[in-house]
């Protein structure tokens, strides 16, 4: 299982890597945010409350990929814009999470940060997942990188997500924490980069 000293080394690595990447990625992030602002007519930087390490809530940052539009009845309908689909497929919408890593809310590798009602409700041995910071990538993220496509094929995507995908992710992430190694983190980062 991951130790306190490994958590410290993991955090140091995250901070240093984020610091190195910041000068390279800050301009592309600003450009993508600007394009998203123009396309959606809203702030291109989107934030949402997620469950973090030790079930502490934090704001995750993403590039906005959804446009709100009012219909003839005055009701707001959200839809993923064409530019947003590209951002999601390429995972470029997650670039602002570099700032989450710098702040210490997230790690480069770990379980994906969940909405309330998932990770914060883990029971028994599965609560071990909350020892680590949520990550931009990780074993479950790599396995389910086409999750949206899988869910679209289901008759009841919400039920399928809760009973099949979420359950599998919990098992994968529990194994990740139990079998943690720094080398494993480097492997997941490399796999994520090569799968872009």
> Helices and strands, in N-to-C order?
HEEEEHHEEHHHH
Low-confidence runs of at least 5 consecutive residues? none
C-alpha-based Rg, rounded: 17 Å
- Average pLDDT figure: 90
Report the strand count: 6
Q: Give the tally of structural domains.
A: 1
Overview of the molecule:
The chain has one domain. It is built from seven helices and six strands, in the order H-E-E-E-E-H-H-E-E-H-H-H-H. The protein has helices spanning 4-40, 82-90, 97-103, 139-143, 147-152, 157-178, 182-194, and strands at 45-51, 57-63, 66-70, 76-80, 107-109, 135-137. A two-stranded antiparallel sheet has the order 1-2. The protein has a two-stranded antiparallel ribbon with strand order 3-4. It has a two-stranded parallel sheet with strand order 5-6. Strand 1 (45-51) and strand 2 (57-63) form a beta hairpin. The longest helix is centred in the N-terminal third of the chain and has 37 residues, at 4-40. The model has no long low-confidence stretch (mean pLDDT 90).
């Amino acid at each position: 299982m991951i130790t306190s000293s490994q958590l410290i080394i993991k955090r140091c690595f995250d901070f240093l890597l984020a610091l190195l990447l910041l000068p390279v990625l800050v301009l592309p992030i600003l450009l993508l945010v600007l394009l998203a602002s123009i396309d959606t007519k809203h702030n291109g930087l989107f934030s949402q409350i997620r469950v973090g390490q030790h079930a502490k809530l934090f704001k995750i940052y993403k590039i906005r990929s959804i446009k709100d539009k009012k219909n003839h009845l005055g009701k707001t309908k959200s839809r993923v814009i064409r530019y947003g689909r590209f951002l999601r497929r390429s995972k470029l919408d997650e670039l602002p999470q570099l700032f989450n890593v710098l702040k210490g809310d997230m790690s480069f590798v770990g379980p994906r940060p969940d909405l309330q009602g998932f990770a914060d409700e883990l029971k028994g041995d599965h609560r071990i997942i909350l020892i680590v910071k949520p990550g931009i990538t990780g074993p479950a993220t790599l396995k389910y990188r086409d999750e949206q496509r899988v869910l679209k094929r289901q008759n009841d995507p919400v039920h399928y997500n809760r009973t099949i995908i979420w359950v599998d992710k919990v098992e994968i992430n529990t194994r990740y924490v139990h079998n943690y190694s720094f080398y494993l983190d480097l492997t997941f980062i490399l796999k994520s980069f090569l799968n872009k």
